[in-house]
Amino acid sequence: MELQIGRVIKSHGIRGEVVVDATTDEPEIRFAVDEVLKGKQAGKERTLTVETVRPHKGRLLIKFREVPDRNVSETLRGTIFFADPLKSADDEDAFYDHELIGLRVIRDGADIGEVTGVMHTPGRQILEVDFGGREVLVPFVYDIVPEVDLEAGELTVTPPEGLFEE
């Protein structure tokens, strides 16, 4: 699954720089010098290599190696950049929403539902679980969700009393 990480707003100056609205929380990694970006514009895909990058009025000014001047940079307007999700090596217990959605929910060895969504709240994530046609919100904390097995397509819950009761 690829995520949108930014979009070219317009060209800037005469040397081929473009203004990029970064839509990632890691712009210093995604748009670092020598990074190769995958861009899509009007059904066309192109690969661009970051030559220089600098902040400018809440956005980024980026010069790509493949873009020699303003004439070429003008053709990049509207290009949307995509990249694979980043996962920190020191956060092996972190999961992306798309990895959790669709997992079967197991309680005491029985399949009781399916994760249908993930809510992000200050302090923690909340799993939205379809429990027999009823939505149950499950805090995504170790005490309640002690095991996530992506290979098996399931997660185990040990909910407090009443959480899954009718």
Based on the model shown, name its key terms.
single chain, 166 residues, mainly beta, Elongation Factor Tu (Ef-tu), domain 3, SH3 type barrels, 2 domains, 6-stranded antiparallel barrel, 3 helices, 8% helix
What is the element layout, followed by pairings?
Elements: E1 3-12, E2 17-22, H1 27-30, E3 36-41, E4 44-56, E5 59-64, H2 70-74, E6 80-83, H3 97-100, E7 104-107, E8 110-121, E9 124-131, E10 134-139, E11 147-149, E12 154-156
Parallel strand pairs: 7-12
Antiparallel strand pairs: 1-2, 1-6, 2-5, 3-4, 3-6, 4-5, 7-8, 8-9, 9-10, 11-12
SSE class:
mainly beta
Strand order of the largest sheet: 1-2-5-4-3-6
- Identify the CATH class of the largest domain: Mainly Beta
- Evaluate the radius of gyration: 21 Å
User: What's the count of strands?
Assistant: 12
Main sheet attributes: strand count, strand direction, barrel closure: 6 strands, antiparallel, barrel
On the 0 to 100 scale, the average pLDDT is 89
* Topology as a string of helices (H) and strands (E): EEHEEEHEHEEEEEE
Question: What are the low-pLDDT stretches, counting only 5+ consecutive residues below 50?
Answer: none
Strand content: over 45%
The CATH superfamily of the largest domain appears as RimM
Oligomer: single chain
Question: What is the end-to-end distance?
Answer: 36 Å
By CATH, the topology of the largest domain is Elongation Factor Tu (Ef-tu), domain 3
How many domain modules?
2
Reported CATH architecture of the largest domain:
Beta Barrel
User: What proportion of the residues is helical, as a percent range?
Assistant: under 10%
